[in-house]
């Protein structure tokens, strides 16, 4: 006796099909967004290195005073390398800190931020105390603004570290983040003005234009990473 044929398959629920299609589309959008953010983060690291290397090469090629070379080394290391990397520390797309837990990322951020601020403040003071007419240039004026913002950001960071669980902690963190981004922005713009003066004369127009373009693109990468990270954190609250 032959067994009865199996029952025909039930028709697929159109609601479930539509839900699965939407979930697949959302996963694809998330994957594309993650790829784009990873590429932006990688390119930003490369640009930061290129900008710093360009400034260091100029400091060795140009036969300037020792305080000018110290100013370049200290400020570029402080602002471009350490403080920029401190901002990128919290990004989930940052490769070398991606495996760290949040408390460890926070510690790395503070170490790099404090170290970068100290170097940048020292480099600015060395230049200002050895060149009075420096304050008459746009580079010098913006450098002074960056110095003041660095001090304010450093003080705000220390206050935020001492009082992490106060009622106003969210406000303090927001202000600290805004001052930090503003400080780095002013410092990068100041560096662009530096590339447009003596650097252009010594290294030529092509190198100057490339250095300025790399500086602007690096700043955009740092700011976009910071804004994306802040938006992601506040949306989870």
TrEMBL record:
Subcellular location: Membrane
UniProt keyword annotations, A-Z: Electron transport, Heme, Iron, Membrane, Metal-binding, Transmembrane, Transmembrane helix, Transport
Pfam (any one): Cytochrom_B561
GO cellular component: membrane
Entry EC no(s): 7.2.1.3
Top-level enzyme category: translocase
Segments passing through the bilayer: 35-59, 71-90, 110-129, 141-163, 175-198, 210-231
Bilayer topology: Multi-pass membrane protein
Entry-linked SMART domains: B561
Ranges for domain Cytochrome b561: 39-233
Signal peptide residue numbers: none
Domain of life: Eukaryota
Name of the protein this chain belongs to: ascorbate ferrireductase (transmembrane)
């Amino acid at each position: 006796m032959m067994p009865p044929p199996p029952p025909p398959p039930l028709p697929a629920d159109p609601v479930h099909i539509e839900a699965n299609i939407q979930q697949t589309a959302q996963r694809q959008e998330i994957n594309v967004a993650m790829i784009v953010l990873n590429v932006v983060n990688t390119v930003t690291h490369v640009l930061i290195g290129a900008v710093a290397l360009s400034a260091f090469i100029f400091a060795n090629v140009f036969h300037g005073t020792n305080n000018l070379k110290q100013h370049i080394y200290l400020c570029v290391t402080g602002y471009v390398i350490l403080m920029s990397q401190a901002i990128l520390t919290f990004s989930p797309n940052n490769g070398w800190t991606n495996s760290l837990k949040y408390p460890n990322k926070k510690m790395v951020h503070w170490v790099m931020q404090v170290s970068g601020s100290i170097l940048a403040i020292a480099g600015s003071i060395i230049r200002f105390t050895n060149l009075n007419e420096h304050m008459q240039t746009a580079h010098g004026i913006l450098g002074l603004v960056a110095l003041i913002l660095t001090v304010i950001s450093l003080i705000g960071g220390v206050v935020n570290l001492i009082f992490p669980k106060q009622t106003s902690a969210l406000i303090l963190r927001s202000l600290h983040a805004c001052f930090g981004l503003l400080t780095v922005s002013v410092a990068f713009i100041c560096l662009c003005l530096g590339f447009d003066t003596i650097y252009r004369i010594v290294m030529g127009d092509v190198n100057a234009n490339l250095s300025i373009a790399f500086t602007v693109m690096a700043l955009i990468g740092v700011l976009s990473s910071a804004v994306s990270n802040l938006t992601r954190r506040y949306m989870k609250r």
